[in-house]
Amino acid sequence: MLSPFHPTNWSKACALWIHEIHIAFDPPTPVDPGKGGVLRLMRWSTPRVATLVALSFTLHCTRPPATYDSSLAGSRQGALSVDGQAYVEEGMASWYGGNDDGFAGRPTASGEIFDPEQFTCAHRTLPLGSFVEVENLENRRRTVLRVNDRGPFIKGRVLDLSKRGAEELGFMGRGTTRIRLRSVDAMGLPTALDPAMDHADPFVVQVAALSDPKNIESLTRELENTFGVVTTQSATTRGGLAVKRVRVGSYTSRQDAEQAAEQLAKLLKDRGVEPFITRQR
């Protein structure tokens, strides 16, 4: 009689063990879903449902990004904002945060300290904290930035990028470039703007940025007689000059803000003033 530790017995034991495993995991015989009760029906249907769910998830997560048709652009500097669709805007962009402009380390409109090395930007009306995908139309480079500041306050520009953003898009040496932006979520997928932000952070019309207290007081009184609410906001220009931004109204509707801006433009057309729409903060 062989010892239980003899290699021959090991081989038999191993073969028996493998056979038992095979029996234990042998797949069940297919069952007609109309027979065998609820449990068998569940066993039959579960893998098929799981396959459909996985396929649906895959199709959803791999869908192509929304496209932009420039022929649809509206009259507001090429902006398009439709309910349920991403906000799209095209125009000139600049950047800030260089060694000599003095913005690094200052508070932004959102309250956070401006860091030129972060992927952030300034926009006049997009909600603070929202994300935009920005494409440089000169070289087709793209990046996603977070809106944390207000601006640019120069005619003809729609976006001010941080130094890091300008590096990513490859236009630091030129200073400005033509861009297209669209609202996206944190993952970079196109998303519509939240209408609730129009109430949380209403629109205002900025009329001028003045440094002389007498001129600020005179303009404020004149505008109050026609438009009612007039506010001022302290700011510092790129050259380091302290100014007061004189603003009119508090509008939860973009359309109302546009009408006020048109009225202000007519009222002040002989003074070289060009009012524009921004947010209270």
UniProtKB/TrEMBL annotation:
InterPro entries named among the record's database cross-references: RlpA, RlpA-like_DPBB, RlpA-like_sf, RplA, SPOR-like_dom, SPOR-like_sf
Residues annotated as domain SPOR: 197-280
Keyword Electron transport recorded: no
Enzyme class: lyase
EC number of the protein: 4.2.2.-
Cross-referenced Gene3D superfamilies: RlpA-like domain (2.40.40.10), Sporulation related repeat (3.30.70.1070)
Pfam name, any one: DPBB_1
This protein's UniProt keywords: Cell wall biogenesis/degradation, Lyase, Signal
Function: Lytic transglycosylase with a strong preference for naked glycan strands that lack stem peptides.
Family: Belongs to the RlpA family.
NCBIfam families, A to Z: rlpA (TIGR00413)
Protein name, as recorded: Probable endolytic peptidoglycan transglycosylase RlpA
Organism of provenance: Geothrix edaphica
